Amino acid sequence: MPRLIDPGSAPAPIALDEAVETLIAMRFDPEEDGAWDAAAPVLVALSANRDFLAERAIAELTGASPGGRDHYGPQVIMLARGPHNWFLRANMWPAEGDAILRASGRAAFFYDLPHDHNFSFLTVGHHGPGYESDYWDYDGEALSLQSGDTAALRYTGRHQLAPGRVMLYRAHRDVHDQKPPSAFSVTLNIMESSGREPWRNQYRFDPASGRVEALLNTTAIEGLMPLAAHLGGGNGEDLLRHFARRHPVDRIRIGAMRALASTAPTPDARHDLLAEMARIDDPAVSTAAIRALAEWPAVRAWAETPSEAGRVHLP
Ligand SMILES: [Fe+2]
Known about the structure:
three-stranded antiparallel β-sheet; Jelly Rolls; alpha+beta
């Protein structure tokens, strides 16, 4: 489970501005050893302030908030951005019967979606009973997984983010499957925002098998590649071929290959492109291409037909 941090004795409440100024004054850097432990009392002192969040919400509803709403989804109020690599936010966690959960569905709040994080963050239970999660941990720092790959997840139990409890979620270490709290709840977070997040994968897992069910990243580049493939002509194809072979991030190389394959003019051209990619000296791309080829109807039919040599086992 995430690392529990004891923030010490109950601190005096502080204003949001004070919290930001304190973190800046202490040169808080989430990438430095000990930084999260040092920041925890500041987050807890902010949480001891029982007024600031309601005042902020009302200011946003009446249009009086100076910065306006930072669009990070309906679940989140962006509170402040640090100078470099962190920001403060509040997260809302609707309960089972709340109208917003019925209207938007559980996935909109990440309920029942076992996932890791491609960033670290510190969280405190600020209001309400707090959500529960089933937790696993795994050693994901050096892994670059694709859908269907497996990781060794270790179950560490079900725990509740109760009021005042402080947890450090560690990037590519802590996996959780959140459940709606018994009543509307709010957490306050200090989030790592180092700029690495777009290039680090975030996964949705099937904990029973440890299998990656999906990559959760949606960055601008992944939206732009299909545009380049569909509308970019020869320049777009050249760029995507370059990305498919040279981009340093597996996910982007594979995405470029898929964008190219999706716009191949004929089935034969698509097959030839996947076959070409299946032979390149890049395990991530070639495996993805082989998996795509395995879905080809003729290949599937051939593989599933028993022969004297026995069945072929597709990846
Ligand atoms: Fe999460």
